[in-house]
Amino acid sequence: MDLENNKAQMRKGILEYCILSVLSRNSCYASDIIKELKEAEVIVVEGTLYPLLTRQKNAGLLSYRWEESQQGPPRKYYELTEEGRKYLADLDKSWMELVESVNLIRTR
Amino acid sequence: MKITVSINLGGYSFNIDEDAYAELKRYLKNLELHFAGEESSSEILSDIETRMAELFRTKLTNYKQVIDIRDAQEIISILGTPEDISDNEGPTVRDKFSSPGYHRMYRDPDHRAIGGVCAGIAAYWDLEIWVVRLIFLALAMMGVGFLIYIILYIVIPEAKTTAEKIAMKGNPVNIHNIKNSVKEEFETVRKNMTSKNQ
After folding, report:
1. Which is nearest to A51 in space by CA: B180, B54, B80, B75?
2. Weakest-pLDDT range from A7-11, B38-42, B44-48, B178-182
3. Closest residue to A15, CB basis, from B48, B50, B90
4. B93 touches chain A (CB under 8 A)
5. Containing H/E element for B161?
6. CB contact under 8 A, B44 and A8
């Protein structure tokens, strides 16, 4: 068994969920999302985030607006769409179910 | 003394050493190939370039005004190579095209001694070619090897295209693998050329 591979698979599965969760609190600039994901150690290389954001945007879960910045060029701020919120609520539910299932087995 | 190149990255202008520039250009080209099948590949790339510019800005001070090769390598390792990125991506549209690996038997014209049958079998089961050849030689001495070889030669098609050569080894046919095998072919040609010149 490959422990690192196993851990990577777990992270993979929850990464999109984590991105949506970060955005559920307020709209974010991509680098802010990276900072949170890195602190929580769910992302290894930063490049992973950008294709996921674009795919979620294309799927209608996210939208973005350009915002002027004092430090440089305008920044892309992502936020959840109505559809994204519903999708996240579903993910929240399945996450809780998953945690319960695992706990049930572990504590038996 | 070194020559620097001036680049525009995500709306910022940077002075960057020539070797670092080459490294960066190769990296961005690889990313471009990696995302080529994606719906909004140019958007992903420009987002990554924007982030890259942001990271480069943290490397510069009043006393250090040029991006060097070490900075470039460090930022590439933070952002991740296409391989790192696809290792960490969730299940995606991309997977539909690239996996599972399409695996079928072909005759291998690149490593053949006679018709490439043994080489093809070796590639399919990931064996050493000489092992397969030895088995055929043994079968030939028993009197059946030759006939079996002829039949297999007729039945198994030759791997002609790059995609077929990849499928012969059982690797998924995607941009990354095609790129690698094109690179391999190029290296072989180059080696042949240099050995002929000597």
Report:
1. B80
2. B178-182
3. B90
4. yes
5. none
6. no
